[in-house]
Design brief:
About 35% of the residues lie in helices and about 20% in strands. By secondary structure, the protein is α/β, with parallel strands linked by helices. It has a domain at about 1-55 and about 160-170 and about 185-249: Rossmann fold (3-Layer(aba) Sandwich). Helix 2 packs across helix 3 (about 105-115), helix 3 crosses helix 4 (about 130-140) and helix 6 crosses helix 7.
Length: about 250
């Protein structure tokens, strides 16, 4: 691949207590792609995401990113909103930290993008779990990120809300073509959203499968089709192989 938004060259991570979280990982992520990281709990998916974000440093190996300084956004599993601040003020936080002008216009546009136009004056306590996550996504995209990192953002939501947010996230990505790396335990979610799925082994995490996901026009009806079911089965089989390989290691 001649151009990469992210390139990891034998990146590994061992924590101070001696836990080896990641075996050497070599991975290249194309600009504008949607990549999901899938694997068993504790396999190092979130650790890898934090390394890419620059929130922690690798023990070994090298990493390069093409995103401009301040061009990376992170969405956590928890919405992590400031409870004392309005929705608009929560979304405006990264703009204020960056000293950006015309904050109100940018915040209004971000809220419109995630379906929360008119909720700027509300407080987090007045919102449902799905709406709180929409605020978190709005806060992430308000800066116009080049790289969007998402760590199981929909895991705590009910299935109906999760499907709706999947639909909306997919539309946002298709319209903006950010480079997205998405951690999930849900095979169905990964297949629906991604054009690529990277499967990781049990700890110490390493890449054991790298799968392109080729599907027709993605919409809510896609989940009911044979193509979708076949892709899910293919990923499930690869994940099962990874689990068996890990147990035998």
């Amino acid at each position: 691949m001649s151009e990469s938004a992210i390139r990891l060259n034998r990146v590994a991570k061992t924590f101070p207590n001696g836990t080896v979280a990641l075996s050497p990982v070599t991975l290249s992520i194309a600009p504008g792609s949607f990549t999901s990281l899938v694997g068993p709990s504790g396999c190092g998916k979130s650790t890898l995401l934090r390394l890419i974000a620059g929130l922690t440093e690798p023990t070994a190996g090298a990493m390069t990113r093409t995103a401009r300084p301040g061009g990376t956004s992170f969405v956590f599993q928890d919405a992590t909103l400031m409870p004392w601040a309005t929705v608009a003020d929560n979304v405006a936080l990264p703009l204020r930290l960056a000293g950006v002008a015309d904050i109100k216009t940018k915040v209004d546009e971000a809220l419109e993008r995630v379906g929360l136009a008119g909720f700027g004056a509300s407080y987090p306590r007045e919102l449902s779990g799905g709406m709180k996550m929409r605020v978190s996504i709005a806060r992430a995209v308000v800066i116009g990120p080049e790289l969007l990192l998402m760590d199981e953002p929909f895991a705590a939501l009910d299935e109906f809300t999760r499907f709706k947010l999947n639909d909306d996230l997919l539309a946002l990505w298709q319209n903006n073509r950010w480079t997205v790396i998405f951690v999930t335990h849900s095979i169905r979610e990964a297949v629906f959203l991604s054009d690529r799925i990277v499967i990781m082994s049990p700890r110490p995490g390493r890449v054991v499968a790298d799968m392109a996901i080729n599907l027709p026009q993605r919409d809510a009806d896609l989940r009911l089709g044979h193509d979708f079911a076949d892709q899910c089965a293919r990923v499930s089989a690869a994940l099962g192989d990874a689990m068996h390989a890990g147990a035998a290691a």
